[in-house]
Amino acid sequence: MNRTEEILKLAEKYRDYTAERLSELVKARSMSGDEKAAADVLTAQMRSAGFDEVSIDPLGNVIGRIGSGGKILAFDAHIDTVDTGNLDNWKFDPFSGEIKDGFVHGRGSVDQKGGAASFVTAGKIIKELGERDDLTIYFVGSVMEEDCDGLCWKYIVEEDGIKPDLVISTEPTNLNVYRGQRGRMEMNVSFKGISSHGSAPERGKNAIYMGSNVALEIEKLNERLKDDNFLGKGSITISEFISGSPSLCAVADFARIHIDRRLTWGETEEIAVAEIEKIVEGMDAKVTVPFYEGEAYTGLKYGMKKYYPTWMMPEDHEMVIKGVETFADLFGETPVTGRWTFSTNGVTINGLYDIPVIGFGPGNEKLAHAPNEMIPVEDLVKASAFYAGFAYKM
Question: Where does the pLDDT of residue 50 fall: very low under 50, low under 70, confident under 90, or very high at 90 and above?
Fold first, then answer.
């Protein structure tokens, strides 16, 4: 029996094991900044699977290690989730972790504790088959991704001092190999008006009108943003409009709009800010990129500017090729290569630090943040085989 056959056999052998590990993680509620329960469960799972070392860093990221070679590969799975939303839209308990009809049910099963459960099994397989002497593998259960994607890896690289040679994001890809995503950023535009009595608005300068005129220009801007054959078109939308005045009988002297900007290939923070500054030119308005500072469940406060760079791996990059080859060796067919529509920790891993990244994850991203989230157990089996297989292939 060759190595590929051994991996497939063990991944199938541990089918129920992987599903049960995911069920445990789903039951551990873990919204962003409150991941301790899931972190404790994942830590115990890694230790039980025989990982060489398991620790939790000051931000709360769970970091498991197998091997101590010079080449560093990392797998990333964020363990925080969004909230459930309206429970009337769910057909089952979002935190039941029920394993039924070939699926594991519950919030976070797809986005993205399924990746974590699968890489725990992959680690178990690697320990059973024997790790490579030249390789160190980190298995990262990262935190706070839903609130600020990439923040966790900013901490891992800059504070923990871990900078892998390659990273596989286990965000859901429907078992396809992904190699990029649009970036994103947030902007605030604040308008300063002049108040006057509502009975004589001509004496004042209405900040709401200023903001409204800019909003209409931003709507037009969305139609002419750059397009990319692979990543798709850049986009912009206003997600919040706030105003203020001395009273409801007065002209508004303040307004602020909040902008969600999605960045395609070639679009940068500087370009996006300049576009808005051109629109507000001549107005008493200020464009800023907000700074995120969150408090981790450990009590540590950490932050970054809310700019999340676009990233894309070339189709002929060695890591993409190895990912495709790994899939083909294991499953006898060529995988689809694609991209995420949403944002991932790749924005810092590759976007800031230029560490090569590909994505391969169980589950369909259409169920991310949706009610009735569930993941096929078969996906978990194939993902655990892929992660183990890639470690031997690279």
Answer: very high
CA-wise closest residue to 290 among 263, 259, 314: 259
CATH number of 290's domain = 3.30.70.360
Q: Are residues 170 and 197 in the same domain?
A: no
Asked if 369 contacts 111 with a C-beta cutoff of 8 angstroms, the reply is yes
DSSP string, 362-378: SS-GGGTT-TT-EEEHH
pLDDT of 23 over the 90 cut: yes
pTM, to two decimals: 0.94
128 and 167 housed in the same domain: yes
Residues 274 and 225 in one domain: yes
Rounded to the nearest 10 degrees, the angle between the axes of helix 114-129 and helix 3-13 is 130
Phi, psi of 196 (to 5 degrees): -155, 170
Question: For residue 205, which of 242, 240, 241, 255 has the smallest C-alpha distance?
Answer: 255
Dihedral sign (CA 161, 149, 299, 55): negative
Structural domain count, the chain: 2
Domain boundary among 295, 330, 358: 295
Q: Annotated active-site positions, please?
A: 80, 145
Report residue 273: phi and psi, to 5°: -65, -45
Q: Where does the chain have alpha helices with state H?
A: 3-13, 15-27, 36-48, 114-129, 151-158, 207-223, 269-279, 318-331, 346-349, 377-393
